[in-house]
Amino acid sequence: xxxxxxxxxxxxxxxxxxxxxxxxxxxxxxxxxxxxxxxxxxxxxxxxxxxxxxxxxxxxxxxxxxxxxxxxxxxxxxxxxxxxxxxxxxxxxxxxxxxxxxxxxxxxxxxxxxxxxxxxxxxxxxxxxxxxxxxxxxxxxxxxxxxxxxxxxxxxxxxxxxxxxxxxxxxxxxxxxxxxxxxxxxxxxxxxxxxxxxxxxxxxxxxxxxxxxxxxxxxxxxxxxxxxxxxxxxxxxxxxxxx
Length: 243
Known about the structure:
Blueprint: E1 8-11, E2 14-15, H1 26-29, E3 35-36, H2 39-47, E4 54-57, H3 66-79, E5 84-89, H4 91-96, H5 98-107, E6 109-117, H6 121-126, H7 133-145, E7 149-156, H8 162-174, E8 179-184, H9 192-197, H10 222-241
Parallel strand pairs: 1-4, 4-5, 5-6, 6-7, 7-8
Antiparallel strand pairs: 2-3
């Protein structure tokens, strides 16, 4: 499986997030709380999928509570469900608790999605990501050593220059990211990022807030910006197809 394709079922094991990234609307949905389901509830939902082989945990941060994640992982192992699992995690969880990922590999974890977002510490700080590039790189190494596939989310700002596009491609090419997914920076209403960029936003129709549109004018102009973005996407997909 080149990416995460195939017949898939969706299950929630947690709601909310433990962090406050400036671009993310998820913490606001739970009033800043991080809520987890009981292991027996998650097992029930997975069993309801029947013979679907791939389970996509739709949580923003599946392992936000490590103790709960350990309990759920052990329950899945004990149940012998024999499913492949895809989950979203944070890089520092990987680097601080590789034991958790060894357990979940036994439980069926096959693909890990990480929001790397930026390729510089300054960029990560601007987004209040509370992580570092070194941490991201270390997380990739830990996951690959465990034999897990890595899907990496990146944010392409409308302020990108040609050099920024080139730097992102170099970063992806230098690290073992199985599926790089660059989206265009989208300041969602209600987020700190939206408040920060409010005066620059010219596109207010929420139908266009799909993370593939620049909602304020790109520095390079729309034609050049979208041309570079589309070309990069094609090269990333070609890399995946041959990976």
